[in-house]
Amino acid sequence: MAAPWIIRSKLSAPAQKSGIIYRRALVAWFARMQRHKLSLLTAPPGYGKTTTLSLFAQRHPRTVWYTLSSADEDPSVFLQHLVAAMGTCCVLGEGEDPSAWLQGADLDRALLGIIHAMQGSAGFALVLDDFDCVRDQREVLRLLDSLITYSPQQVIFALASRTRVHLPCIPKLRASGRLLRLDSEIFTVLAGGRGGSYLGPRACTWARATSRRCMS
User: Fold this and answer.
1) 216 Cβ contact partners less than 8 Å away, ≥ 6 residues apart
2) DSSP class of residue 198?
3) Domain range summary for the chain, segments of one domain joined by +
4) How far apart are CA 39 and CA 44, in angstroms?
5) Is the pLDDT of residue 19 over 70?
6) Does domain 8-183 correspond to CATH entry 3.40.50.300?
7) Are 25 and 195 in contact (CB under 8 A)?
8) What's the whole-number average pLDDT of the chain?
9) Is the pLDDT of residue 95 over 80?
């Protein structure tokens, strides 16, 4: 597997924007995310998906961040950036170097090496932002599904996407209570309810407009 250029800017959470509304309820969501194997944040642009995840990363230092783009449709690019992100955050066990598993052309062998390297970690959260940018998702979804299914219990995942993400592991995670969904309806309720959260402008605009209608 030839090593692509690693785009380092994709491996760190964006800086917090100014003017973000903060209320306490989202802290409870952060706690819930830590108790679930997979958290799915699905909403149109402007609802605060990236902001929510970046604030989660601020509160939880052992967070691996990876912002995807159309280039990540190539599964080798996806795995290389995944390994680089984990290396940047130093979340793997001592002496573990999954990059050695990426030298061949066998994607499944490389994935096995990554999962093996995760076993010695103390636990971390893997955030995949802008997952909808990967339009031809079949091979990447297969790799990600295996990663979620076979990774150790102490590793959790959070995905943000403008569209629904269809992973084969989702029904089993839902049935076992290990799936958490945060969609546009929840974003808007949090924006207008007591407690509230850090949210994007569209969710807050919707909440203010709904509040005015209810009061008129």
Assistant:
1) none
2) -
3) 8-183
4) 17
5) no
6) yes
7) yes
8) 81
9) no
